[in-house]
Amino acid sequence: MSASFPGARLTIDLGAIARNWRTLAALDPSSECAAVVKADAYGLGAAEVVPALRAAGARTFFVAHLSEARVVRAAAPDAVIYVLNGLPPGAADAFAALDARPVLGSTEEVLEWAAFRAATGAATEAALHLDTGMTRLGLTPDEARAVLSRPPFRPALVMSHLACADEPDRPETERQRALFAELSALAPDAPASLANSAGTLLGATSGGGLGFALRRPGVALYGSNPIVGRPAPLSPVVTLEAHVVQVREAEGGTAVGYGGAERLTRRSRLAILSLGYADGVFRAAGSADGAPGAVAAFNGAFCAYVGRISMDLIAIDVTALPDPPRRGEVVEILGPRVTVDDLARASGTIGYEVLTALGPRFARRHVGCGDGALFRSGI
Ligand SMILES: *Cc1c(COP(=O)(O)O)cnc(C)c1O
After folding, report:
1. Which of 9, 33, 120, 121 is buried most, with the most CB atoms less than 10 Å from its CB?
2. Domains located in the chain, CATH noted
3. 205-254, pLDDT tens digit by residue?
4. Which residues contact 187 (CB under 8 A, 6 or more apart)?
5. Residue 199 CB–ligand 1 contact under 6 Å
6. Which atom of ligand 1 is nearest to the CA of 352?
7. Is 277 a catalytic residue?
């Protein structure tokens, strides 16, 4: 523990991220494997994650905002950077200055970009986003046909986004693939891109032809499997360890935590951990009225959360442990025993939300980029 006594420490394994990228890339060698690093690389630190991915071989990166593109540009000067949330009004100059490519998702954006290029002669590239069934961003099929029949500039990429690929039995994915194949054929010179992480994993197992020229995995790089119930060849990336503040005993029938939501069924030993929902462990992962919540792990044994999760504290049951943790020791909240997807399931959410909620209070360190070097250490 450092002199600042953080409640918990988060370790991010850059080697595992690089390994996951190589694994996904190798699933379909005929398709480029890009990397989605929006939201600060899903909460894990784009400034550290991007160089690790670049060293592994990734050269195309996707972010949501121009501010995120700046971080990627600083970390990987030669990267190709696409900005998924498109072109805000009047922002074309800023995109060109950074050599960041907007993913144009409406006719309005296409026209503004075309006007900017015509007025300035800027050579900055852009992607076209085609909506094939998500109804979020992207030109409708009719708009896409209109724009692509007389394109005002040559797009560097045409892409669409899958809405249901995390559920392999859903028929929507094949409908989206077929529509995208038809629309993207109207821009035969532009590389095409459809698959997210789930599409990348599905395309590999089902021969579904989802790869196209470029794939855009995000969450799988960070060790979370988007397809529940179907094993994926991914390495865990994050380890979150919480310090034990105290260990205490309590009689059967005693109420634990806010609202007395959980009552002990026997004399128990509890370890009180120094993290809570303010750190990003969702309150929904607590236990109440005998309905189990999440588990932590200590020395290989699982320990159930007991009662509601507080802002800064969580109680776990260590009664069954022959050698329970002591004050100042650490317990695994996430890691090799408790995966991001396990905690997500216990919280009623998805791995994406668990990752992006990991808070700023932790001591953070990045390890394991080949030589095990620490990139930045808060510990
Ligand atoms: C976030 C996002 C991705 C990556 O999705 P994952 O499910 O994390 O792999 C790909 N494409 C678009 C358009 C996105 O918004």
Report:
1. 33
2. 31-221 (3.20.20.10), 238-376 (2.40.37.10)
3. 655 589 999 999 999 999 999 999 999 999 999 999 999 999 999 999 99
4. 128, 148, 151, 155, 158
5. no
6. 8
7. no
